[in-house]
Design a protein that fits this description.
Largest sheet: 5 strands, antiparallel
Order of helices and strands: HEEEEHEEEEEHHHH
Radius of gyration: 20 Å
CATH architecture of the largest domain: Roll
Strand content: 25-35%
Mean pLDDT: 94
Shape: elongated
Number of strands: 9
Strand order of the largest sheet: 5-6-7-8-9
Number of domains: 2
CATH topology of the largest domain: ibrinogen binding protein from staphylococcus aureus fold
CATH superfamily of the largest domain: ibrinogen binding protein from staphylococcus aureus domain
CATH class of the largest domain: Mainly Beta
Structural class: alpha+beta
Low-confidence stretches: none
Helix content: 25-40%
Length: 242
């Protein structure tokens, strides 16, 4: 099962309960695409694993101990400089997408309280771990830098403003009203399969979850939109909000 917005929402809730109020104790970077933060909270040490490896990007706590290089990479040293001793103040999911932001309260060079965030984007080969100034949304650095010669659509580079990946005109299912849903489904191409409609119209829904919504609505996933009755659409709306 792919890690979609619904699955990440569950992870967000789990991390929020475990990490809020905790302090960063140690930071490691076992390989070029992965960082591990040890966060002390509730009398326990939580090891937060974040990986942007294209084959299996993810974020979660773990009990596994990884071997670390003798010389920490530059990104690891940067995180240590800014986040050692920092307190976790928020764990949030951006737009119900596969993007998780963990915010830390820390001190700058003048001993002033500031907030900085680690943003984890779980997007297959485009996955990334981005470190930003929370208030200004300015990128401090990222585990993968994306210059203009790599992507003309969106760059990820120190000094640039952080912007979320393009949303492709999809709706956030948490914000969608029944009127918006019906307008979307009534104006879509009647030849589109119902599960493809869910997957292509709403942020955070994988093909697997889209098929599950069809099952909950009592609809065959291979049914075309043009074949749906008003009753079918009502059941589809209820299933989307299950």
């Amino acid at each position: 099962m792919s890690l979609d917005g619904i699955f990440l929402n569950s992870i967000q809730n789990d991390l929020y309960n475990k990490l809020i109020g905790g302090r960063v104790d140690k930071i490691y970077q076992p390989d070029k695409n992965e960082v591990v933060l040890t966060i002390r909270n509730h009398g326990e040490n939580y090891k937060l694993l974040i990986t942007s490896a294209s084959s299996n990007p993810r974020i979660h706590t773990t009990d596994i101990t990884r071997k670390n290089p003798e010389q920490p990479p530059m990104f690891c040293m940067l995180l240590r400089k800014h986040l050692s001793g920092a307190r976790v103040t928020d764990v949030s999911q951006i737009n119900f997408d596969r993007i998780l932001e963990i915010t830390f309260e820390c001190k700058d060079e003048l001993d002033t309280t500031v907030h900085k965030s680690i943003i984890t984007e779980i997007m297959g080969k485009h996955s990334n771990i981005i470190f930003i100034n929370t208030e200004s949304r300015t990128i401090i650095d990222s585990i993968k830098r994306v210059a203009e010669n790599v992507s003309s659509v969106r760059q990820v580079y120190p000094g640039l403003k952080y912007v979320i990946p393009p949303q492709q005109d999809k709706l956030n299912p948490l914000d969608a009203t029944k009127e918006l849903f019906l307008d979307k489904i009534n104006n879509a191409n009647g030849g589109i399969l119902i599960y493809n409609f869910f997957y292509g119209s709403f942020i955070g829904l994988s093909p697997f979850i889209s098929k599950e919504i069809c099952h909950l609505a009592g609809l065959n996933e291979g049914t075309c939109l043009g074949e749906l009755t008003a009753e079918h659409k009502e059941k589809a709306w209820i299933a989307l909000n299950f």
